[in-house]
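Lab meeting minutes (informal)
Scribe: AK
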Amino acid sequence: MSNENAALRLIFPQWQGGNNPPYYLGSQMLEWLAPETTGIVEVVNVTEPKPENSALQVENGIRGRSAIKLQLLDAQRRIHKHQPESITVLGGDCLVSLAPFAWLQEKYGDRLGVLWIDSHPDVQTPAQFANAHAHVLAALMGIGDTGLTSAVKSPLAAEKIMIAGIHDPLPYEEQFIAEHGISICSPHDVRNGAEKIVNWLKEQQIEYLAIHIDLDVLDPQFFRSVLFARPGRGADEFGHVAEGKLTIADVLNIVGKATAQAEPVGLTLAEHLPWDALNLKHMLEQLPLLGGRDKISLSVTD
């Protein structure tokens, strides 16, 4: 990567795709925690969630569609300005991977593979679910609402996708994966060597890799800054939605094995929900001599 704009770091605190205001602070904290970069940094324009703007309307089957489209266009503009060879994204909800991965797919074509490390496949459409963070991988394949798929000039082929950490998909998701022939690696397979990932990379002759890490792939018993570790949650609050079963060591092992075979050109960290920090922030806003700012709602809506 020889040109000075080769590496782009995108700070993308999108919360509307998951209809979950705390993703905003989650992205900001990832930015603070991440090692410094010598590359270009851009911050996507996302409205900070406040009580007066956090109630999103469903438009054309997608909650917060207008805001999501504006943020998608802003992300595209920032990416195209720099013409990067690699992109790191610190989100925000899972939809933040749409513009960056679409760019990488257009740039690298069938030499690019997408390693989607997630408990969920994110292949739904407005017909199944209104929250667009569950639509992103289907949108990268050119499937779903045109407000999302319009960003994808070169749809991602199903055989270039590997979903790692997935288990117990919903019926529609299971059918979609089967019909399109998407490769998967279960938590059990991950812990037993993850050879499916290595074999997929070799069979598909993948030279470049875009890696999406949804932090809720991590077991909430051991990593608490995810949706499923929300303090005070009910045992059945999330219904039949799969909860993470991997550890940080599992994720690092997957990434290490994959990047030994293909050059990483994309990396997303998404769905960071630092509950203790959020609750402490809420407390600080209400203490004497510290308060005065508008309060971010800590409610989670599905």
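Next up, CB showed the second protein from the same session:
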Amino acid sequence: MTTDEATKNEEVQTAALAEQGEDITPNQDRGVLKVVKRPGNEDKSPMIGDKVYVHYKGKLANGKKFDSSRDRNEPFIFSLGKGQVIKAWDIGVATMKKGEICHLLCKPEYAYGSAGSVPKIPSNATLFFEIELLNFKGEDLFEDGGIIRRIKRKGEGYSNPNEGATVEIHLEGFCSGRIFDCRDVTFVVGEGEDHDIPIGIDKALEKMQREEYCILYLGPRYGFGEAGKPKFGIEANAELVYEVTLKSFEKAKESWEMDTKEKLEQAAIVKEKGTVYFKALGLDQVNEKGLYRRGEARLLMNEFELAKCDFQKVLEVNPQNKAAKSQITVCQKKMKEHNERDRRIYANMFKKFAERDAKASKAVGENEAEKATCEEGLKTPVAEGKV
């Protein structure tokens, strides 16, 4: 097949897609048209925030290929609905099933627009893609496998509840396919356990947006742990699934200074002339909440070892306090990062010292050699009749 014939075939294929493709844009403006070339082998589609794995090849409307993951023999990975790819992809891949191959025709406003992507994609280019959805999985919120989120409905705005925020949520809890909890509840983020809400919900809420509706898969560590929850018929180390809607929230004070001041006051701390003193009065040494707040304050001031001690004391008072267990992990991580940073700083410092010493040693050696040469010259007798 000649180049002209191949180009003509591509143009025919693009024209057919433009005529037969399904309009999958929310506004039904025919900005993204789709044709399924091979159906998927599962019923589920990826959700917002899911990590998706695809193979693709992209062509201009005239058939000229500008990119292909298959040529690199490496799947392309991105998070769906996060703006990491062109708008057409976020729309199109969300409609696919695992194993599906589809063709997408993307108008400029859903691709690279008037700017293009030089040098391969010109301004106002309509693009053709063949995409195969290899796999997808939920978003691992803390990269430890403990909380997996799948967003069914994206939230509004860019603001998230912070610790101490008052939230109103609707939740439904499932264990082994059985629903054990269904209610609307208002509480303060960080105090969910007081309302029979596992710590994983507290953690996830800090990453949610208003009106977001998501599914959370909680491992035992972020669920009800070894204690279980007899009230709900939950056994020890059970894996839980929650459907959560963040209906509204009111953030706690957001600036670091105000947040720190509030925690210091709660922990009965005063700061004078650069030194922090913890008041003996007003802080019961076995008060669970007081110790926890003091630990938070110390953590904010990068006093990681002292903070860890406070959270350990909380566990001595209440071994079931999962928030304190989580904070101990944070302290350990911060201490490790701090030690690593110091190690790198000192390593660089010693390297510079070694380089400086090597240069000085080299200079001394050169001076000694030059001196020896001069001395040797002085000892050599001058030949008769020569100057």
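CB comment: Residues 322-379 form the longest helix (58 residues).
No objections, moving on.
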